[in-house]
Write a structure and sequence with these properties.
mainly alpha, two-stranded antiparallel sheet, 21 helices, about 60% helix, about 5% strand
Length: about 525
């Protein structure tokens, strides 16, 4: 569970349960998610957690750890911590202080652990009882020996400085994670990762970045955006192309004679689809130029996930026996670019990590992030609903009210008319799902201070997607409020999210030294 869900959960639970109980409730939610079959892997993938850099590996009291970043917790929450924190980046768990009464609880907590579990106790009998069940038993205080160090604040920079000593393990307390959010582990690992300066975009074509092939990703996004603009021009002009007329056996005048709202209805469907295509192009170009060029692995994966959703939705073309030739040509042109863009490469990371800045700014940005993820999830649900309508019922009640006729009435005039309308509907639903996937993952994974490209990508995609949809509905008089309510809600959420997040995402520093670009080695 990332910071933007953890902090609101803490606030709500705190108001209802009190601070101590709210912390336990939040940790239990994380533990429940991580303890489900495959839950840890899913959480790690969905939250963008990646393997720590090699130099963060080490050992503590003879126990090897892949990541010298861990947590120290009391026995009462050991079970929850052992299941909740590894998917989020913790490399070990220290439980202290452990007494004889805690032995059964610690044994249960350590069962099935994914990372080393250590305990501290001053009771030799407890040490003997737990030694077969945990990775190490410590008899000295956690700060002794200079090996285990507690992080005193949520400062990422301070944690990175402590990790610079290869013999030091940095431990976060539950209180720190409540304050900073479990995403703290990921932020520290990113800041500690050796990077090199990002290539200028014009040079990206000469060599691949770690997160994919940015030049091809940018070109694929441009192709999709141009295709959307062309589709909008057709919808605003002739509406039907030659293959549409051939499939229907009717031209625009004949459609207008059947129903004087039908041409406007087809135009509104196609302009909305065109706007979504432009939004997809903007999202792909942003992911490529802003994320993949700088080696963010999650940028490639967001690009890949969105594209896979879109290609699966291409099967809608065959659901009604009508495959548009230009649509197939676009797919044939886009597919090799997409494959080239998402190929893995061996280049190193090229991102920068800015200081976190004011805490109030960060918390406002977390609220914006949560709203943006909700928007993306809502758009995906809308895409599923539109696809289902296009594949089954063709028209919703507000469509019937606008047209003054249902699918059966259209079919009685021309048996192919319902299939033609449904084809457009299903195509829009698939495109909306692809765009929503990119929006959701970019918002969930890309929220970092100073990553202004994230803000601009989401803002431009929102304009491309929302404005044509509203404008075309208003222009043709299709103003059913229930029908447009999801669009208005999405616009409000997006505007609020981007307003709250702009100071954080678009932050700048004057000194290059503060950008924390680290050289390998």
């Amino acid at each position: 569970m990332p910071d933007w869900t953890y902090q609101p959960l803490r606030g709500i639970a705190g108001a209802l349960l009190g601070v101590r109980r709210s912390r336990l409730a939040a940790l239990r939610v994380l533990a429940w998610t991580g303890s489900l079959p495959g839950g840890g892997r899913v959480v790690a993938r969905l939250l963008g957690h990646r393997h720590p850099p090699a130099h963060l590996a080490g050992a503590v009291r003879g126990v090897p750890v892949r990541n010298r970043l861990g947590a120290v917790v009391p026995p009462g929450v050991a079970w929850e911590a052992v299941r909740a924190l590894p998917p989020l980046g913790a490399g070990l768990i220290l439980v202290e202080p452990v007494t004889a009464a805690d032995v059964p609880q610690i044994r249960e907590a350590a069962t099935g652990r994914r990372i080393p579990v250590l305990v501290r106790t001053e009771d030799p009998a407890v040490a003997d009882a737990l030694a077969p069940h945990v990775d190490a038993v410590l008899a000295t205080p956690s700060g002794a020996g200079g090996e285990l160090v507690r992080a005193e604040s949520p400062s990422v920079d301070a944690a990175v400085r402590m990790l610079a000593d290869p013999g030091r393990v940095v431990l976060a307390t539950p209180g720190l994670l409540i304050e900073a959010g479990p995403g703290w582990f990921g932020r520290v690992m990113e800041a500690a990762t050796p990077t090199v300066p990002a290539l200028p975009l014009r040079d990206a074509v000469r060599g691949p970045a770690a997160g994919g092939r940015p030049w091809w990703g940018l070109m694929a996004g441009a192709v999709m955006a141009v295709a959307g603009i062309v589709a909008a021009a057709v919808a605003l002009g002739p509406v039907l192309l030659w293959y549409d007329r051939a499939f229907l056996g009717m031209d625009r005048q004949a459609l207008h004679a059947v129903n004087h709202h039908l041409v406007h209805f087809l135009r509104h469907d196609r302009i909305t689809l065109a706007g979504t295509m432009v939004a997809i192009g903007v999202l792909y170009a942003g992911l490529a130029a802003g994320g993949m060029r700088r080696g963010w692995p999650w940028a490639r994966e967001a690009y890949l996930a969105s594209g896979c959703v879109g290609f699966v939705a291409e099967l809608y073309l065959f659901a009604h026996g009508y495959a548009e030739p230009l649509h197939l040509v676009l797919t044939a042109v886009f597919l090799p670019m997409f494959v080239a863009a998402t190929r893995r490469s061996s280049g190193g990371p090229r991102w920068t990590s800015l200081p976190e800045g004011p805490e109030r700014e960060r918390r406002r940005a977390l609220t914006g992030q949560l709203l943006m993820v909700i928007t993306g999830a809502g758009l995906f649900a809308g895409g599923v609903a539109v696809s289902a309508v296009g594949l089954t019922g063709v028209l919703v009640p507000s469509d019937v009210a606008f047209l003054g006729a249902g699918a059966d009435a259209l079919g009685s005039v021309n048996a192919r008319l319902p299939s033609f309308v449904a084809h457009d509907r299903a195509g829009f639903g698939g495109a909306l799902m692809a765009a929503a996937t990119a929006i959701t993952l970019l918002s969930a994974w890309g929220w970092r201070r100073g990553e202004s490209w994230v803000w601009w990508t989401l803002a431009l995609a929102a304009v491309a997607g929302f404005v044509p949809a509203v404008a075309t509905h208003l222009s043709i008089g299709y103003v059913d409020l229930w029908h447009l309510a999801p669009v208005f809600v999405g616009m409000a959420l997006t505007t609020t999210a981007l307003t709250l997040s702009r100071p954080y995402l678009c932050a700048r520093t004057m000194s290059a030294a503060r950008s924390h670009v680290r050289s390998p080695g």
